[in-house]
Design goal:
Elements lengths: L2 H20 L10 E9 L6 H15 L4 E4 L14 E8 L1 H15 L19 E5 L19 E7 L4 H11 L19
Antiparallel strand pairs: 1-3, 1-5, 2-3, 4-5
Helix pairs in contact: 1-3, 1-4
Length: 192
């Protein structure tokens, strides 16, 4: 099984299943995963070597070179000047997106200690966001060489119009959501 399997699984199994269960008239009405974005922010006082380490870590995780996000305006209370680096972001589409999603479902999430599923954090339009408190859960990160904990936000953008459609799509693809809807620890999505 590989990322090609996941894409084939979507086209051959998930699309007919959702067409039947959701009552779509056409296979083109079935929601699709369009992109996955990874975002990681850091303090404005972070030194350049730490920023480069974070950039390299996110590049290893995503399999694609990220870009550095910079401040648009100066805010004196936060000691922030226009153009200072504030974070790192990368957008995955196509084959790289399917590879990352497969790695997330098959490798990363099952290896989290005491993992009971991920929370259902949708934005109202069928897009899902997962907060990761420590990026060392990804197998590309060497824990011995890791000097700091970096958190990141992972957003799966879909063409679904409602959260129910998005949940049905991502559940059918294989994301392991929690069974109960009222878990108190829903803020602890993915941590070591």
């Amino acid at each position: 099984m590989s990322d090609l399997f996941l894409k084939d699984f979507y086209t051959k199994t998930v699309v007919p299943e959702l067409t039947k269960s959701q009552g779509y008239q056409n296979v083109h009405q079935v929601p699709k995963i369009t992109k996955i974005t990874l975002n990681s922010g850091f303090d404005s006082s972070t030194d350049k070597t730490t920023i480069q380490n974070i950039l390299q870590d996110i590049e290893r995780i995503a399999g694609q070179k990220p870009v550095i996000t910079k401040a648009r305006t100066s805010i004196s209370n936060f000691k922030l000047r226009e153009g200072m680096p504030l974070g790192v972001k990368v957008t995955l589409r196509g084959q790289i997106m399917w590879e990352f999603l497969y790695k997330l479902i098959a490798v990363v999430l099952p290896n989290i200690r005491d993992f009971r599923g991920i929370g259902k954090r949708f934005d109202g339009n069928g897009n899902y966001t997962l907060g990761v408190k420590d990026h060392s859960i990804f197998p590309e990160i060497n824990i011995e060489n890791n000097k700091q904990t970096v958190g990141l936000d992972l957003t799966i953008v879909t063409t679904a119009t409602t959260d129910e459609e998005g949940l049905a799509l991502l559940t059918s693809v294989g994301l392991p959501f929690r069974k109960s809807t009222g878990d108190a620890d829903e803020t602890q999505d993915a941590e070591n």
